[in-house]
Design brief:
It is flat and about 80 Å long. It is α+β, with helices and mostly antiparallel strands. 26% of the residues lie in helices and 38% in strands. The N and C termini lie far apart (70 Å). Among the domains are: 1-40; 190-233, Zinc/RING finger domain, C3HC4 (zinc finger) (Herpes Virus-1).
Length: 233
């Protein structure tokens, strides 16, 4: 009977380990299946044909599909307060605290990090195709793997006095400083002007369009009847 508690403990540990392994394997297979479906997902061009495909699809919904288009903010895009030339549709601010913590077992200082503040801004945007057909992005913040470009990064280092150094060794913690970052899903600041005059030529930026001596397309020389700004990532 003396060995029974040990065997029971081993059985409980083994059961917990098998359960945890099963859960991890299930999550892995689920993610792997999703990735395989995304790899095999059909690519569609944003045009009138996409509408026709949705009409004949049950529920007018494509479970996995890849579409590409120009990013066009609905309204004014977001502007970086650090880089005035950078505009985007997603913006993420983060302030992290970095400090060193004394590890008594290894007798070394180890890095530690925690988030002090985080804020995410977003504006509605659409993906525009070649013939002005648009797909509205409803939940960009729920997307995984969104490429956010770092537009600002600054480390605020802490200056120590003698009293601070003594206090750090007594407490076992050293504050290194705070890292301030900004990430954005950017659109280009040089807006490409789409001359919608039955020719559909995309041929100059907004500044060049303003400098044209005559409101005619530089390529086909037709009169310009409409101008639409496009934004590209």
């Amino acid at each position: 009977m003396d060995g029974f508690p040990v065997k029971m403990t081993e059985a409980v540990c083994l059961g917990a380990s098998l359960t945890l392994s099963g859960i991890c394997y299930y999550l892995y297979r689920k993610s792997r299946t999703t990735l395989d479906k995304l790899d095999d997902a059909p690519h569609f061009t944003i045009d009138g044909k996409l509408k026709d495909i949705l009409k004949v699809t049950p529920g007018a919904c494509l479970q996995y599909a890849v579409i590409e288009g120009a990013v066009h903010p609905v309204g004014e895009p977001l502007t970086s307060p650090f880089q005035k030339d950078f505009v985007g549709v997603l913006q993420k601010f983060m302030l992290r605290e970095h400090r060193l913590v004394w590890n008594g077992l290894s007798r070394t200082w180890t890095d530690s990090e925690r988030v002090l503040h985080q804020r995410v801004n977003a504006v509605p945007f659409v993906l525009v195709g070649s013939n002005e057909t648009a797909v509205k992005v409803l939940c960009p913040l729920q997307a995984s793997g969104v490429h956010m470009e770092t537009t600002h990064e600054k480390f605020h280092q802490v200056n120590y006095g003698l009293g601070d150094i003594i206090g750090q060794y007594l407490s076992g913690e050293k504050l290194k400083g705070q890292l301030e970052t900004e990430e954005m899903l950017k659109v280009r600041t040089d807006r490409i002007t789409f001359h919608w005059n039955y020719c559909g030529h995309v041929c100059c930026c907004h500044s060049c369009y303003q400098a044209l001596p005559h409101r005619r397309c530089p390529i086909c020389r037709q009169d310009i009847s409409r101008v639409v700004p496009l934004y590209h990532v």
